[in-house]
Amino acid sequence: MAEEGNESNKIFYNYTPNEIVVEENRFLRETIETLQKELQKYKTTPLIACEIREIHGPHALVKLPNGNEFLVERSTELNDIKPGDYVLAEQKNLTLIRKLQSNKKFDVEKFVIIEKPNTSWDRIGGLQKQEQEIKEIIELPLKNPKLFEKIGIDPPKGILLHGPPGTGKTLLAKAVAASTNSTFIEVVGSELVQKFIGEGAKLVKEIFELAREKAPSIIFIDEIDAIAATRIDIGTSGEREVQRTFMQLLSEIDGFKPLDNVKIIGCTNRKDILDPAIMRPGRLDRLIDVPLPNEEGIKEIFKIHTSRMNLSKMDEEMLVSKMKGFSGAEIKSIATEAGYFAIRDSRNKIKEDDFLKAVEKVKIEDEDDSYKKVFG
After folding, report:
1. The domain made up of 108-289 is a member of CATH 3.40.50.300
2. Quick one: DSSP state of residue 274?
3. How does strand 286-289 pair with strand 183-188?
4. How far apart are CA 17 and CA 277, in angstroms?
5. What one-character DSSP code corresponds to residue 74?
6. pTM
7. What's the CA gap between 237 and 293, in Å, rounded?
8. Are 75 and 96 in contact (CB under 8 A)?
């Protein structure tokens, strides 16, 4: 007779052997389904993302976003993880559930500008010398790498464009990217420091990984002085983080293989504060000065920006003399402002007087900006 309390025996007391097997199978299936549902609950969101630091057999040492580290268990299905990978873990006991498809903590494409520029060389005026240098240093190695192999030299890894704001440094970088059909990856140094303090070095590494994936590519680092300024021995924790970011940048540049299809263009308005390490041979050792345009350059830039405008007869020489000391960006702004003056008067043609008023307006705005920089 079945023992008291033995539920299964009570259930199957009056069953034939075949009926008992069928019933036990049904009972086991229901139990498995219940356990599977319970297990699935632990695999559903929200899950926490963490980084694998070390592997210890069925366990792993993980680092959470808050910086804490834990030794946790991993799923039996999770056999292909390695240090540096990112995984999803159940929040209660941190059991590792599955590996993230990307091993990047940041979706780096959200934080840089990636494009295939269509800027042509004929849209740049007054910078023939700089254009020629960039073609030799950046364009030629990307278009004809075998030439350098035959000669037996390694092409430069990158260049440093320096000069006042608005003189066409970014345009030059975009033009060479367009001429070589390269992916243009624009990084702003100051935003890198402000947004990712503590993780700047990791992001720099991911930017270079992205560049290799999308090669041929050009990494354009605007305001490079924000992360590559002269290092100091004593500083705040923030300054030390910036230095770590800078050291990662130097490491990535040094790590490039010869004739790689990734080139670097740094850009700065403050070459005087840059750390000499960034400009030493083998790094961004080709320095290209991009100054304010001379009289001939102003003429070229003025023609480029007014080529599609409906102009009345005007004294071009006089207008060019009025724009002496202006940058290319300011000359473009003058053309735009002159067009607005014509629109306000309901005219289809732009007169000489429109340009004169535009020159004065831009000049006043520049004086106001200079005053604010000095006095705040």
Report:
1. yes
2. B
3. unpaired
4. 84
5. B
6. 0.73
7. 41
8. yes
